[in-house]
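Worked example 3 (structure in, sequence out).
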């Protein structure tokens, strides 16, 4: 018996297993802490899969906690979309749904405790004035003239800030740490700022709000989070995270950083994605070209492919650029296994079988998915007049060794039906092929072929009499045409792909698609994968191209 291959662990799993082995924590407890100021994108999916996945792997718990400390940009719409996305990915937080705003009272008391210790002070400087004193990483900063206010004065001013006595920006509460620290985040960072605006959960109760740096570690502590997993840009914030926990003498959650997902041809910044939405470069957060989870869900990416992608790329300590083809491969691999096959003809031209009796129809049996033995078959009507794709015919084709499709005096098989031989064609006034003529061989019916003929070409087709003709096919492609958007120096919108969406209204589809409903997935044979969109109506079927059968950008 061969020895079982030992599982390869990433550095976070190694840390967790060491902590468990040493008895540092009885139960692993993680959290996913999104700010509800936009929709989740594919980069967040990595963090969702990591935090919820680790909790599941080690029989622990994972909280969903909304970092809702900035009422300027946060909305209930974003809260609901985030919850929907996480559930779509296949994860559940049970009863552990929390908000930083749940802790506003306690966070305020923490701030008061810091003031009483002489570790925080109210500062009257504007941000610009403080920046002028802050220095640089190699030049020490200068202290605020308000840094050494007496504790009682700070307590009074902070209470007045809470009571609404001061205007936005008039005062802030700062931590009193070290204005000469080489880490700029330790040079008296802001803990509270004044924002006279309603909060999506607390209404007008508060007019001062904690910063993320102040709320983050304390929220982790109050929830008993053992492993606070953040992306690498928060590594420089960790000393402040630990300093605050130490000053307050509360439960010490452990922050660990990992590399965020940077994907080629993709923007993974909520700020930039919001700009695309607000400036109408896309139709909304769920535009199928967007890398938001709602966008890729609408486009047709299956959640299991996203989870498999997250497993494939793993967890690293250094940032890098992941090829979007890795994600696309995961999508194709899953859809190849699950999506039913159908015939969709995007650029139809009529094919007339001249020796087929007028008015006769036969029913052909088509395989729904050769990758799935349980998928069964469907019936397709076959008659004298059919549609094939214009690209499958060439009036002057190269040698048979290079052209396996239809041309004058060439033979091909119509899939699931008969072998035909082209006998001629007709052009319209503009010189375009309008009709193709062929004869069929009655002895070559699929599954009953007694002719002994061998042909290399196989074409898709749709019966003219039965075709679905009122269809809109939205041919989506990558939103950006530049591979590494992290290296550009100009406006990222200059790199938008002008051909990221093309509308096809001339396609014809096989009749089985009349029963299709929003969310159904199909593979158009030899073309790609498509999802029925929510914009579909009884009179018009709308399908989004999820992905082509192969990476056309690699050509």
């Amino acid at each position: 018996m061969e020895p079982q291959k030992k599982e390869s662990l990433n550095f976070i799993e190694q840390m967790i297993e060491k902590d468990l082995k040493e008895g540092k924590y009885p139960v692993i407890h993680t959290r996913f802490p999104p700010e509800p100021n936009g929709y989740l994108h594919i980069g967040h999916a990595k963090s969702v899969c990591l935090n919820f996945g680790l909790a599941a792997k080690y029989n622990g718990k994972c909280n969903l906690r909304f970092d809702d400390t900035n009422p300027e940009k946060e909305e209930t719409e974003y809260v609901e979309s985030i919850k929907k996305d996480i559930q779509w990915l296949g994860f559940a937080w049970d009863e552990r749904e929390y908000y930083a705003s749940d802790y506003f009272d306690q966070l305020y008391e923490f701030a008061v405790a810091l003031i009483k210790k002489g570790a925080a002070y109210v500062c009257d400087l504007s941000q610009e004035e403080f920046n002028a004193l802050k220095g640089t990483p190699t030049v020490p900063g200068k202290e605020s003239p308000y840094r050494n206010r007496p504790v009682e004065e700070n307590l009074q001013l902070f209470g007045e800030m809470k009571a609404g006595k001061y205007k936005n920006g008039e005062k802030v509460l700062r931590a009193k740490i070290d204005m000469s620290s080489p880490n700029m985040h330790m040079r008296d960072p802001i803990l509270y700022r004044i924002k006279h605006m309603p909060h999506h959960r607390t209404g007008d109760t508060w007019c001062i709000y904690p910063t993320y740096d102040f709320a983050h570690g304390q929220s982790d502590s109050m929830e008993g989070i053992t492993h606070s997993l953040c992306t690498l840009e928060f590594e420089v914030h960790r000393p402040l995270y630990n300093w605050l926990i130490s000053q307050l003498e509360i439960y010490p959650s452990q922050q660990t950083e990992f590399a965020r997902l940077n994907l080629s041809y993709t923007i993974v910044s909520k700020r930039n994605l919001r700009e695309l939405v607000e400036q109408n470069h896309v139709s909304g957060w769920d535009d199928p070209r967007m890398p938001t989870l709602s966008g890729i869900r609408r486009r047709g990416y299956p959640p299991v492919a996203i989870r498999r992608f997250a497993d494939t790329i793993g967890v690293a300590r250094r940032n890098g650029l992941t090829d979007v083809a890795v994600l696309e491969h995961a999508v194709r691999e899953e859809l190849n296994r699950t999506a039913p096959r159908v015939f969709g003809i995007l650029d139809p031209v009529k094919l007339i079988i001249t020796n087929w009796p007028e008015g006769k129809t036969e029913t052909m049996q088509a395989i729904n998915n050769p990758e799935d033995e349980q998928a069964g078959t469907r019936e397709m009507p076959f008659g004298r007049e059919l549609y094939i794709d214009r690209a499958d015919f060439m009036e002057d084709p190269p040698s048979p060794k290079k052209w396996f499709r239809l041309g004058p005096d060439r033979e091909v098989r119509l899939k699931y039906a008969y072998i035909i031989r082209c006998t001629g064609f007709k052009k319209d006034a503009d010189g375009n092929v309008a009709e193709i003529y062929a004869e069929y061989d009655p002895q070559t019916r699929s599954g009953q072929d007694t002719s002994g003929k061998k042909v290399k070409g196989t074409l898709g087709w749709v019966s003219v009499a039965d075709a679905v003709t009122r269809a809109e096919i939205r041919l989506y492609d990558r939103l950006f045409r530049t591979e590494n958007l992290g290296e550009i120096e100009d406006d990222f919108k200059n790199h938008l792909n002008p051909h990221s969406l093309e509308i096809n209204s001339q396609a014809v589809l096989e009749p089985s698609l009349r029963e299709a409903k929003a969310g159904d997935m199909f593979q158009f044979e030899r073309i790609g994968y498509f999802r029925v969109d929510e914009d579909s109506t009884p009179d018009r079927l709308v399908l989004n191209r999820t992905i082509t059968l192969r990476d056309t950008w690699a050509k």
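Notes: The chain has a mean pLDDT of 95. The chain has three domains: 26-258, 270-340+471-554, 344-460.
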